[in-house]
Every structure is written in C-alpha cells, then in structure tokens.
C-alpha cells in the first residue's frame, strides 16, 4: 500500500462515492473536496468542504488535491494555432481522423477565425465570422468566444459536417481543462446554481451562487483572451490557503472561465466602512481588519508573492466580519514586468511607479495607504488631489496626515510603511507584531471578543 504523508489541512478529492457510510465515517460523492483534520497512524479524519461534516475516510478512496503548476503553456484553447495558413492546417491534421480539429486565425480576413475539421480523409475549413462582438459560422448559432463555440460543436454538429471529436493541440501547449481536472480544481457546472449579480469587476461580472449547498461567489470571464490571462492567476491561487485570503474553491470551464471562490457576504471593505461608519464600526474592529489584512499579506510574503494591487477595494469582508485579501489579478511571482498604464497611482510605491520595482516592500507601502483607508472609514486617499499632484508631492516627501480621530501610534505605522527607501519599511511580520501590541492596549481579552463587540454593535 502507498504510504500517504497527509497532515491536517491537506485537501483531497474523492475518487469514488461513500454514500452509505458506517458510523463515524464521512459521507461523500465522487469529486467532493475534503480537508484532512486529523491524521493519526492508520486512519484519517476529514471535513467535507461543502457540507462541513466530519468523519473518518478511507485514504485509498481519495487523492490529494495538488496545486496547479504556474505554466505559460497552460492553455484554455490548446486547439488554437494562431496565424497559420490553410495548407499548414491540413498538414497538422494528418494522419486524417474523423472529427480531428483545430482553430486558426484567418490570414485573408484579419479578425476572423477558421475552424478546420478532418472529415472522411479531407479537411474542411469553416470561416468563423466576427461581427457585433459575436462569432458565427452559419449566421444561425452565435457564440461569445471560441471556447463556447468549440464546446457547442463538440456536443452537436449543427450545420457543420461532423461533431468535433479530438482537438489537435498546438505543440508545447497543455490543456488547462485536463490539468485542472487532474489536480482536482475543475468543478462541475451541473452542481452550480447562479443567483444574483453582486459586483462588476474590470474583467467580468461577479454572481452569488450555490455549489453543492455551499454559498459561493462566481466571477465569469467571457472573453477568451482575458480568461487565458486569468488562468495563470488562478494557478497561483491553487497554491494558497490562509484564513485571510479569499479562498479559491475551483474553476468551471463553460462559456468562458468561471472562478468560484468563497462568498464574502459583507462585500468589499471600502463599501463596508463607508456604509456603516463610526457609529457602527468601533476602533477595535478597525484594528482587527488591519490585523486580518496584515496576516494575509504576511502569508503572501512567506510564499514570495507580491500582490501589486493591495487596497481596501480589494479586501472583502466575510459574514463573521473577517477581512480577507482578494483580487490576485496583478499578483506575480517575484518582480517582473507589469502594465504601467493600469497602476493604481494613489496606492503604488514611488519606486514601483517610477522604475516598476515591485516587491513585498512596495506592497507594504500600499498597506500603509490601506491603513489610512481603514482608519478614515473608507475615504478616498489624498482627498481632493489629482493623480499627477499625488505623484509629484509624494516624490517630494509629502505624506498624508492622520485621518480624523486616528491615534498617533497608528499614524506612525502608516508613516513607517511610507518610508521613501523600501529597505527601511517594515516587513509584514513586524507590522503584525506592532498591530498586536496596539490591540492589547485596547483589548486585553481574546480577539474573538472584538468580533463580539462589533457584531452586537452592528445589530443595534
Ligand atoms: P475588480 O476586477 O474590479 O478588482 P472583482 O471582479 O474582484 O473586482 O470584484 C468586483 C466586486 O464584486 C467586488 O468589489 C465585490 O463587491 C464583489 N465580489 C468579488 N468577489 C466576491 C466574493 N468572493 N464574495 C462577495 N463579493 C465579491
């Protein structure tokens, strides 16, 4: 028997069903995600990620859920070969096999695509016309993107000669679908119920939903180029698990990319603070939020990840008022290239703005701005200043004053984060220690008490 080295916290995917569990055993179905809670010699106790139930499991009936490797060759469209000619496509579809297909960019009609399919020893080229933001082959069936189109013709032949049977993968690419499924991160669209729209992101709408009874948030990215870019970020998220990071639950490939995360019912931190204000949210809770974010960032730092877009709008609040860092949209391993145009000027450290030098220490700068947002109850930083003014003044040494009623000790923390020289800024563990000291000044009791104080206040 293979010896497993699973410890508490390891996530597993069920290989089969355990519907009629004996006493003490956990009930689960094939594909369910379970988290090991106790690993003693000879047996494993696990918690079902969606039902929350706990019980013993047979380790041979589950496999470990692995992180997805961040790999630029991972592709949502491995059958997409870019700009190649018709005859090149014919060569690639040899030896002939009914239903073998690829998609290429049209050379003669830029902006259009061509679906090439092998049928009875020949290759048929279907021109895919791009009009009014939609794609069509026959002016009857319209699709938002290529992924959608391929999905459709893989199920039904519609007006083409054959159902698409087998993708001809471009050399060097790896099917994201296959990898997601192998590692245990591919979820099943049939188990998802979508509910109301709860937010609009830059790249897609966010919906509330239910996945096997669990309330979830689903971000849907329809454009396949954007979805492809997000895939890398999603791969990063499969490596991360922390109470102060919004948890990825999995991915669904259907009409684009569905990114399924835990639902943060109290929305983003800026709106949370703005809509409640001082009368509802006390100082202790503000400190708690600051500490929550700091702990999430300390974890990211330990994984050598740089967030690059840390701001209160990218922090979400859970039902039990825990703040969690979200939106890893710009997260990159190390400090490589970035898109200068999209930088959030008021939150970005001077060296990152000028020389694109992103690091944990530039995240610390942003964290200082986030502290300012928290203690000002969600005000826009550098009030009434234009972006150019902010850039110039900050470069010249200007720093924001303390928000109204913010204790000097917290303002000093912000100033530490805003040291011009990145090296002189504290790391997140140092910041956490300092915040814990602040916390003990206000409340000597356990941190759970803070949430109690807050929740009773919010009920008033
Ligand atoms: P952007 O792309 O602008 O950074 P997102 O797409 O991440 O924004 O999210 C847009 C909005 O959707 C958020 O501000 C928040 O209000 C809501 N939202 C996003 N993710 C979740 C979630 N997991 N739970 C609850 N609300 C969410």
Helices and strands in order:
Layout: E1 11-14, E2 33-40, E3 43-48, E4 54-57, E5 62-64, E6 74-75, H1 86-92, E7 100-105, E8 113-119, E9 122-131, E10 134-136, E11 142-143, H2 146-155, E12 166-167, E13 174-175, H3 176-183, E14 192-200, E15 205-211, E16 214-221, H4 224-237, E17 248-253, E18 257-262, H5 269-276, H6 283-302, E19 305-306, E20 315-317, E21 323-325, E22 332-333, H7 350-355, H8 360-375, H9 387-395, H10 408-417, H11 428-442, H12 448-459
Parallel strand pairs: 6-13, 7-12
Antiparallel strand pairs: 1-2, 1-5, 2-3, 3-4, 7-8, 8-9, 9-10, 10-11, 14-15, 15-16, 16-18, 17-18, 19-22, 20-21
Helix pairs in contact: 6-8, 6-11, 8-10
Bound molecules: adenosine-5'-diphosphate (ADP).
Features:
460 residues, alpha+beta, six-stranded mixed beta sheet, five-stranded antiparallel beta sheet, SH3 type barrels, Phosphorylase Kinase, domain 1, 22 strands, SHC Adaptor Protein, 12 helices, binds adenosine-5'-diphosphate, 23% strand
Description:
The protein is of the alpha+beta class and 460 residues long. The protein has 4 domains: 1-18 and 25-56, SH3 type barrels (Roll), CATH 2.30.30.40; 76-167, SH2 domain (SHC Adaptor Protein), CATH 3.30.505.10; 191-262, 2-Layer Sandwich (Phosphorylase Kinase, domain 1); 269-329 and 339-458, Orthogonal Bundle (Transferase(Phosphotransferase), domain 1), CATH 1.10.510.10. It has 12 helices and 22 strands. The protein has helices at 86-92, 146-155, 176-183, 224-237, 269-276, 283-302, 350-355, 360-375, 387-395, 408-417, 428-442, 448-459; strands at 11-14, 33-40, 43-48, 54-57, 62-64, 74-75, 100-105, 113-119, 122-131, 134-136, 142-143, 166-167, 174-175, 192-200, 205-211, 214-221, 248-253, 257-262, 305-306, 315-317, 323-325, 332-333. The strands form 6 sheets. A 6-stranded mixed β-sheet has the order 11-10-9-8-7-12. It has a 5-stranded antiparallel β-sheet with strand order 4-3-2-1-5, with no helix packed on it. A 5-stranded antiparallel β-sheet has the order 14-15-16-18-17, with helices on one face. A hairpin with a 4-residue loop joins strand 14 and strand 15 (205-211). Helix 6 packs antiparallel against helix 8 (360-375). The longest helix is centred in the middle third of the chain and has 20 residues, at 283-302. The termini are far apart. The protein binds adenosine-5'-diphosphate (ADP). Adenosine-5'-diphosphate (ADP) is lined by residues 198-199, 201-203, 206, 217, 219, 246, 261, 263-264, 267-268, 314, 316, 326-327, 329.
């Amino acid at each position: 028997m293979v010896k497993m080295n699973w410890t508490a916290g390891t996530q597993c995917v069920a290989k089969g069903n355990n519907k009629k569990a004996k006493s003490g055993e956990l009930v689960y179905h094939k594909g369910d995600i379970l988290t090991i809670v106790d690993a003693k010699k000879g047996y494993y106790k696990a918690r079902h990620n969606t039902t929350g139930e706990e019980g013993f499991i047979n380790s041979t009936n589950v496999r470990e859920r692995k992180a997805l490797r961040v790999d630029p060759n991972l592709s949502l469209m491995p059958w997409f070969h870019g700009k190649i000619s018709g005859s090149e496509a014919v060569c690639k579809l040899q030896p002939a096999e009914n239903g073998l297909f690829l998609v290429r960019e049209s050379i003669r009609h830029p902006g259009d695509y061509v679906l090439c399919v092998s049928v009875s020893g020949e290759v048929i080229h279907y021109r895919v016309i791009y009009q009014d933001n939609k794609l069509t082959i026959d002016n009857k069936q319209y699709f938002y993107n290529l992924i959608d189109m391929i999905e459709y013709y893989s199920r039904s032949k519609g007006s083409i000669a054959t159902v698409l049977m087998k993708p001809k993968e471009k050399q060097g690419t790896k099917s994201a679908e296959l990898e997601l499924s192998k590692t245990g991160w591919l979820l099943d669209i049939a188990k998802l119920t979508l509910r109301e729209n709860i937010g609009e992101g830059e790249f897609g709408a966010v919906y509330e939903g239910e996945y096997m009874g669990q309330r979830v948030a689903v971000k849907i990215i329809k454009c396949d180029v954007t979805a492809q870019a997000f895939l890398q970020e999603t791969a990063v998220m499969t490596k991360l698990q922390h109470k102060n990071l919004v948890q990825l639950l999995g991915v669904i490939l259907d009409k684009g990319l569905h990114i399924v995360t835990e639902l943060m019912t109290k929305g983003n931190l800026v709106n949370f603070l703005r809509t409640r204000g001082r009368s509802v949210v006390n100082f202790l809770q503000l400190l708690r939020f600051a500490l929550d974010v700091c702990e999430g960032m300390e974890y990211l730092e330990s994984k050598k990840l740089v967030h690059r877009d840390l701001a209160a709008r990218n922090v979400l609040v859970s039902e039990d008022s825990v703040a969690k860092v979200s939106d890893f949209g710009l997260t990159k391993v190390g400090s490589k290239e970035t898109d200068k145009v999209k930088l959030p000027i008021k939150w970005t450290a001077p060296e990152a703005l000028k020389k694109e030098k992103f690091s944990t220490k530039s995240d610390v700068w942003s964290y200082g701005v986030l502290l300012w947002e928290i203690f000002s109850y969600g005000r826009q930083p550098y009030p009434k200043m234009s972006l150019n003014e902010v850039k110039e003044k900050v470069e010249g040494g200007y720093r924001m004053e303390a928000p109204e009623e913010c204790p000097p000790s917290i303002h000093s923390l912000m100033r530490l984060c805003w040291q011009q020289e990145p090296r002189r800024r504290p790391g997140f563990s140092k910041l956490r220690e300092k915040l814990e000291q602040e916390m003990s000044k206000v409340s000597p009791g356990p941190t759970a008490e803070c949430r109690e104080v807050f929740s009773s206040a919010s009920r008033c």
